[in-house]
Specification:
alpha/beta; five-stranded parallel β-sheet; four-stranded mixed β-sheet; 25 helices
Length: 537
């Protein structure tokens, strides 16, 4: 007998064996037990989550002569006929290759005849979103008023492409991505049946590679078993078969990136390519690795948020201390953008190399998170290199002279007695990005011409937004405008700050001082820098 793929061999034949879709299974079994069966169902969800499987089980259950708790018995004459594909009661149609009006007209003619045996004629239309507009229109009337003995089950991965007139006539069921634990448990169960030994770490990696799809995970597992037939399935062997990368490589790569070592990063990438690793898989896995680092750094109980061994968790904790949250978020953003570009790219290697260079050289980008990363790099260089006499004199002059009369900042105003709080510097450094997120056009224009300031007498952490012309008068006493600006500042910088909005020449505050982006960066790193203006957004 020919070999049967695992995903076909272990396809569930009753509702109890369907994993990860309890909300759907419970509803359908209750309907069958109470004889409240609908005439049209729409099963939506990503690939490999059980849409067609559940449709076939439902088709047998409604025709079963001896159902068991809402599931088909799979032993009666009707169940065996449907399972063998000889029953005329269950008709499966692939809408991808039968998407014309004539195909639907054939269905309309067939539903006029009652089933010769059993209770219902069930039409399972897979990938229904592929039907043409004319075919949908032809299906509409039959779907609206079908005979009592007909059930339509429509399955799709793209529900947004289905006309609203069709959606409104169906009971919609959304199939969720299956959790990592559920897939791993099912794989372990099937491996025991197959008599294959496998490391738990290897099984969990295959489960994660399935990306919420049981069928994808089973196909990958089938591939790994075939490659190492008769041998124990280890983690390293799984990585070899799937073209994946061990986390130890990610650790080495991250350290090279944090050090700004472009050559070292490209050399590691070269090793992966020469080892036959798949670049799309590498990008996804490295993004996941950095996601774990971010969770470890921000979570109070990372062992609950990150699915790794205690040894790997210890290493993640160690590496999370080597960087900061803003830098990790920038790295994740760059690689997330790359994962969307690399799928259909002809030069995948070039795209990955560019992304690695971006991570090593934050000056290539003008985003706020890149600016913060550049500050981190400069501060690290200051720590690693002892400052020369000229630099030390500059630093000393800045620190000692900050309160002397006559010393001016880059805006030409006298320097304040007290330095601006660090939170205000960070807000001003990202002021352009904050203003560009304002929803109202008039308010945005007023803010673009406004000057963010602080009180130099008190040094209090209060942001004074000083409008320079009449446009700002409408917003001085507008609580909604102030709330919107505060919310955007909190989302953009992670800082909560008190805001006062004023109009120049019409307020009593006499010692408000301006913080420019230049000054904000200088005060943070205590050295001369060159401000590179990014393109207008």
């Amino acid at each position: 007998m020919s070999y049967t793929a695992l995903y076909r061999k272990f396809r569930p034949d009753n509702f109890a064996d369907v994993k990860g879709q309890d909300h759907i299974v419970t509803t359908l079994t209750n309907q069958i037990r109470a004889n409240r069966i609908g005439h049209a169902y729409l099963f939506c969800g990503t690939r490999g989550t059980g849409k067609t499987t559940v449709a076939k089980i439902l088709a047998r259950a409604v025709n079963c002569q001896h159902p068991v708790n809402g599931s088909p018995c799979n032993e009666c004459e009707m169940c065996r006929a449907i399972l063998s594909g000889t029953s005329m009661n269950v008709i499966e149609i692939d809408a991808a290759s039968n998407n014309g009006v004539d195909n639907i007209r054939e269905i309309r003619e067939e539903v006029a005849y009652r089933p010769t045996e059993g209770n219902y004629k069930v039409y399972i239309i897979d990938e229904v979103h592929m039907l043409s507009t004319g075919a949908f229109n032809a299906l509409l009337k039959t779907l609206e008023e079908p005979p009592s003995y007909v059930i339509f089950i429509l399955a799709t991965t793209e529900a947004h492409k289905i006309p609203v007139t069709i959606l409104s006539r169906c009971q919609r069921y959304d199939f969720h991505r299956i959790s990592l634990d559920t897939i791993a448990a099912r794989l372990s169960e099937l491996l025991k049946v197959e008599g294959v030994e496998a490391e738990e770490k290897a099984v969990r990696y295959v489960a994660r590679a399935g990306d919420g799809s049981m069928r994808d995970a089973l196909s990958l597992l089938d591939q790994c078993i075939a490659f190492y037939l008769g041998q124990t399935l280890t983690y390293d062997r799984v990585l070899d078969v799937l073209g994946a990368v061990d986390t130890e490589v990610f650790s080495r790569l991250l350290r090279k990136i944090l050090a700004g070592d472009v050559t070292g990063s490209i050399r590691i990438l070269e090793e992966l390519i020469m080892g036959g690793r798949e670049l799309g898989q590498f990008v996804g896995d490295f993004t996941w690795y950095m996601r774990n680092l971010l969770l470890v750094k921000t979570s109070e109980n990372p062992e609950d948020a990150v699915d790794v061994s205690s040894e790997n968790l210890r290493l993640l904790r160690e590496e999370s201390e080597m960087t900061d949250i803003d830098t990790l978020m920038r790295y994740i953003r760059v690689f997330s953008e790359l994962s969307g570009q690399i799928r259909y790219a002809a030069q995948k290697r070039v795209l990955v190399e560019i992304a690695l260079i971006k991570l090593c050289r934050p000056a290539m980008e003008t985003n706020l998170d890149s600016l913060l990363d550049r500050v981190r790099v400069l501060e690290k260089q200051m720590e690693e290199r002892p400052a020369g006499p000229a630099v030390m004199a500059e630093i000393t002059g800045r620190r000692q002279g900050s309160g002397e009369a006559g010393l001016e900042d880059s805006s030409g105003e006298p320097a304040p007695a007290k330095a601006a709080p660090e939170d205000l510097k960070k807000i001003v450094a990202g002021w352009r990005g904050i203003v560009n997120r304002i929803s109202g056009g008039a308010f945005r224009i007023a803010l673009q011409q406004a000057v963010p300031k602080y009180n130099g007498d008190t040094g209090e952490p209060v942001l004074y937004v000083e409008f320079q012309n009449f446009r700002g008068k409408n917003y001085v006493d507008d609580p909604e405008a102030k709330a919107e600006l505060a919310d955007i500042i909190r989302e953009q910088t992670g800082k909560t700050v008190e805001i006062h909005m004023l109009v120049a020449g019409e307020h009593p505050h006499g010692n408000l001082s301006r913080i420019t982006v230049d000054q904000a960066i200088r005060e943070n790193i205590h050295m001369d820098v060159v401000i590179e203006e990014g393109p207008e957004e």
